[in-house]
Amino acid sequence: MLIRAGVSLRRVRHIRPPLASFVRPVASGHLNSWNFSLTIENQEEKFVDDMKFLGGVLKSLLEARKPGVLDVVTQLRRPARTWRDPAFSDADKDKAFEELCRNVSRLSPEMMCDVTRALSHFLALANLAESRDQTRSLRQLYFEHGGAPDQSDALPAKLDSCAGTIEVIINEDGASAAKIFQALVKQQTEIVFTAHPTEVNRLELLKKHRDISELLAQRDAMSGGDSTAFERAQNERAIRRGVAAMWGSDVLRRRKPTPQEEAREGLAVLQTSLWDAVPSYMRRLDAVMLAQLQQRLPLDASPVVFASWMGGDRDGNPNVKSGTTREVVVTQRRQAALMYLRELSGLRLELSVKECTPALTALSGTEAAEPYKAVVEQLIARLRATVAWADAELQRLGATPDARPLALMISADGVAGQSAEPLLVVEELAVPLRVMHESLVASGYAELADGALVDVLRRVGAFGLQFAPLDLRQESTRHARAVHALCQQAGEHGYLSWTEDERVAWLSKELGSGRPLLRRGVFERLGELGVGAEENEVLQTVALTAELPPGSLKAYVISQATAASDVLAVELLMAEAGAVKPLPVAPLFETLDDLNNAPGILRQLFTTPGYAERTGRSQMVMVGYSDSAKDAGRIAAMWAQYESQEKMLEVAKECGFEISFFHGKGGTVGRGGNPEVYKAILAHPQGTIDGKFRVTEQGEMITRNFGDIDSAERAMDIFTAAVLRDQFLQRPVPTPEWRAAMAAMSACSCDFYRSVVREEPKFVPYFRAATPELELGSLNVGSRPAKRNPKGGVESLRAIPWIFAWAQTRLNLPAWLGIGKALEGALADGSGPVGKEELQRMYKDWPWFHTTIDLIEMLMAKSDRTIAKHYDDKLVTDKELLKLGAHLRERFEVTERSILSISGHSAPADDYPDLQRSLRARRHYIDVLNVIQVEALARLRAAEAAGATKGYDYVTLKDALLLTINGIATGMRNSG
């Protein structure tokens, strides 16, 4: 048994995975002076030791470089800690907060910068220590349940790990090992990395964090006594150098990154952690499957794969052109080839065996004494040719390739002088590797076959030749205008003025005709024939689907999709471009109306003549979480997403289509994120996942979940376990009464949310006065503009800065606004479809509703009305706007009471002890950063009003402000 006997798996809480907003507690006590030493209830000795050590390193550095900063930090932290201490009276707390604000008001701009840097770096180090402690705790589980001769301890015996999940399915669901095996080998989780600008740290700083994290792991390993004093001293010196490098680095981006730079940053995660994490995790999963299911993970199974929007997402980003996408594709292929070269260079030395099968002899093309080495050398030659091809392509595009790693490109014996074609199709790499594996096994060398060769095969399955194939994303009206341009060239006029039925009929006719709309050669010359620049750019982008090597692109996503013609238009454009194997076209439904209309749109698509034949009766649909929440409020959006997926699945079944959902979730709750990924996946409507789970991973969440090998392995395990469990779990069916309650609450919540955000004329002025929304653009965290329409209001603001701004003020308004209004009637007098008791029953028995309430409660635990009020007091001068702010904080209180009444908790998230301890330890640091941010905002806005924006103080104040934004995001471990 992996799980302790006598413990009901149904009652065991899930682990807080690395994907949680707060992974482990920093402390439940306090930091003593500036020594960063912690008092912790559980006395987790190694964690305490890490924190004391890291705090001491930072303190020593500051004493040497900025001694005055330590005194100021102490002056600020003392009242901040008093303000949070429940032992003090309310009057004493008020005085302490006033003292904190007064002390901050006396700081010079330069001291603001230094103090903020110090606090931010400490919070970053605290994050590293938390992650190390979380990994350490997870490792402890291996030993607690370890020692199994069948190696079933390769993964932790937890409900959100494959080891625990398989046992649950066998023991509680009664499924056979064979059935579980079949489900597991067929399922697939696809993680799609996006360049959404929520990672506030620069790549250089993230690398330093990663280096320190690795050194902490080494320090941990040395604590067992198997190290010399010299080795321990060298480790400490290396950590001190790393912290010094952190302090000396510029935390801020001084310019916006290009899309190519964003893609390189995403590629860095693939190279530095996932490249090794994937084969390592697959080995663990293979061992668990052998122990529990008596079968091994097939070499062609890929439970986790990756894709990317970095360089392919042009929705609202004029900086992403067709040439950008082409450059990113070629750059990634080049880097993948170099990484495979490194692996095959080692494999070449390992596979010196002579015995082989006839299939391998035929493949090697020779009677060489070392046939495996001969095949590897052929692949090395082709990979080198791939690098050369990529270099030529990049030079043609005007890009400068990075210098080739010399060791990988030096000719080796047997490889020098070989001429070869570049590897452009993944099977050309995978097939020879599989033949070698089969030959080694057949020749009696199974152990050798199971070594580095299997690791390369696992990488090929997860990364292919592209590392992470790109999705193309563009807004629907851009395609309509491009089709209109094609029509004009073909003598058809008025496409943009046609009705939806007319568009569908014409598009269907053209797609079914089997002939191109334009004469041969015209498509390539449209720019010369008077087609507008925007339309031509769309056409050039679509042409990539025909021109790039196979496997370079994964899907074509249509943002703001509202009609069946949006999908058919992209189909027609790809056909005109000559795409032999068109990409799957995924409409993105992202507003409340679009989600509600989506089932009808799909029905029209599925019944359009020829559509089933062209698509093979397979349809991908993307569900937008962040924009729908910004449009209608959190609860209305979540219910619309739930019902829409149910109804789209029903339509697909009726029409004989297989549907897969692509979930466009952000990292924060307000954008659809859920820290408890295992529970979140199991809360999806029954049958909507069915072994296929595609989801976006963005910004700071990429770093958090995949930034190091341990975290990446754990994240892959959680995703794999949840998708497996989903296939066997029978969820409670929501009753008609529950559905009626959700419909009523959704409508009430949406009406109230929109009455504030859309209809209240004072809301936008208040939002811009009380938050740093206008200043967020100076962070330079992304290549695209913060607004789709620079002149628009909140409706044109992207979801990320919308969430980011409210997170900075600690009000987190998008996550809860409208929910209290929806609940208070039912809770107060039982009005509405259900009363308090039924809502409590929904919370107890319906996983989706339970998860929804828990998420809102967790965000409220991370919120703070007093801090939000301080922003109003210092930054908002209009009395009417101040009244609105007070009203919103009152609504927060109403919502909090309503949520707690349903959950039965005495305080928000009081059953999340890790979160509570982490918050208690971090809050007074973040509080100081918030007060500094308010002071910096007030001074900057006063200077701007006076036209004094040229001096040193203004520039330094702006840096201080941006540093506080960075520090608060680091401390709260979320941004947008």
Radius of gyration: 29 Å
The biggest sheet amounts to: 8 strands, parallel
Distance between the termini: 42 Å
Mean pLDDT: 87
CATH topology of the domain at 475-550 and 552-673: the name is TIM Barrel
Strand content: 5-15%
Q: What general outline do the C-alpha atoms trace?
A: globular
Q: Can you count the helices?
A: 37
CATH architecture of the domain at 475-550 and 552-673: Alpha-Beta Barrel
Question: Would you report the number of β strands?
Answer: 10
Strands ordered across the widest β-sheet: 4-3-10-9-8-7-6-5
Q: Residue ranges: pLDDT <50 for 5 or more in a row?
A: 1-43, 410-414, 668-673
Short key terms for the protein model shown above:
de novo design (two linked rop proteins); 37 helices; mainly alpha; disordered N terminus; phosphoenolpyruvate carboxylase activity; phosphoenolpyruvate carboxylase; TIM Barrel; two-stranded antiparallel ribbon; 976 residues; magnesium
Q: Quick gist of this model?
A:
The protein has an 8-stranded parallel beta sheet.
General description of the model:
With 976 residues, this protein is mainly α. Among the domains are: 325-463, Phosphoenolpyruvate/pyruvate domain (de novo design (two linked rop proteins)); 475-550 and 552-673, TIM Barrel (Alpha-Beta Barrel), CATH 3.20.20; 736-911, no CATH class. Helix content is 60%, strand content 6%. The protein has 37 helices and 10 strands. The protein has an 8-stranded parallel β-sheet. Strand 1 and strand 2 (37-38) form a beta hairpin. The chain starts with 30 loop residues before the first strand and ends with a helix. Mean pLDDT is 87; it is low at 1-43, 410-414 and 668-673.
